[in-house]
Design a protein that fits this description.
The protein is α/β, with parallel strands linked by helices and about 220 residues long. Helices cover about 35% and strands about 20% of the residues. It contains seven helices and ten strands.
Length: about 220
């Protein structure tokens, strides 16, 4: 399996430079841009304008896509601003054949899914000549591909985190992220709606989330 060098704290759904700067200054390791249709959708040209406002030593940039053809994804990566592609739709592992890029795969499991069933969905993404870097576990909401604010199944995620580089998403907030990390012991955490106020990214909540996550990861790594 591929290895990532440090715990990931990703602020997703960034749409403006103020939010990106807040995530950068707070110490987030990754910022996510929703390139698929959603209320947080952003176009690549605006992403580049935002990144021009950040210092060279910025967080990793993650482009979140849903069911895009490989040719489109290669073009996005070739523009040089994108560090990671997050596949968040119904993609099949065979798409990795055409993506010589760093990739995360988002998966959503309904409550009650057992770990063997989950592994059957996860393993093909790692048992590949170009495996994904990590799997992101989100809440399962019919007809939605993430960003719902619903909480994922922490018990299942904790089992899976012992075997895979797992990034936990789904309903995390500054108030709950420490407990989530302590229970699940994931490789990383991902938040979008949990750091918003009135539908917009809130710099205060971004700072609180990142601080809580980094402090908890640090305590786990030294314990």
């Amino acid at each position: 399996m591929p290895e990532i060098s440090s715990a990931q704290v990703k602020i997703c759904g960034i749409r403006d430079a103020t939010s990106a700067l807040a995530a950068n200054e707070a110490g987030a390791t990754a910022i996510g841009f929703m390139l698929a249709p959603s209320r947080r959708q952003i176009d690549p040209s605006t992403v580049r304008e935002i990144l021009d406002r950040l210092p060279a030593a910025r967080p990793r940039t993650v482009g979140v896509v849903i069911n895009e053809p490989a040719e489109t994804l290669r073009r996005l990566f070739a523009d040089s601003w994108l560090d990671v592609i997050q596949l968040s739709g119904d993609e099949e592992p065979s798409i990795l054949d055409e993506l010589p890029v760093r990739t995360w795969k988002a998966l959503r499991f309904p409550l009650g899914t057992d770990s063997d069933t989950a592994r059957r969905s996860i393993d093909p993404w790692f048992d590949h000549p170009r495996p994904v870097e990590a799997v992101l576990i989100d809440a399962s909401v019919p007809g939605r591909y993430g960003g719902t604010g619903h909480v994922a199944d922490w018990a299942l995620a904790a089992e899976l985190a012992r075997e895979y580089p797992l990034i936990l998403a789904g309903g995390l907030t500054p108030e709950t992220v420490a407990a989530a990390i302590d229970v699940v012991r994931p490789f990383g955490v991902d938040v979008s709606s949990g750091v918003e106020s009135n539908g917009a990214k809130d710099p205060v909540r971004i700072r609180a989330f990142v601080a809580a996550a980094l402090a908890t990861f640090a305590s786990i790594h030294v314990s």
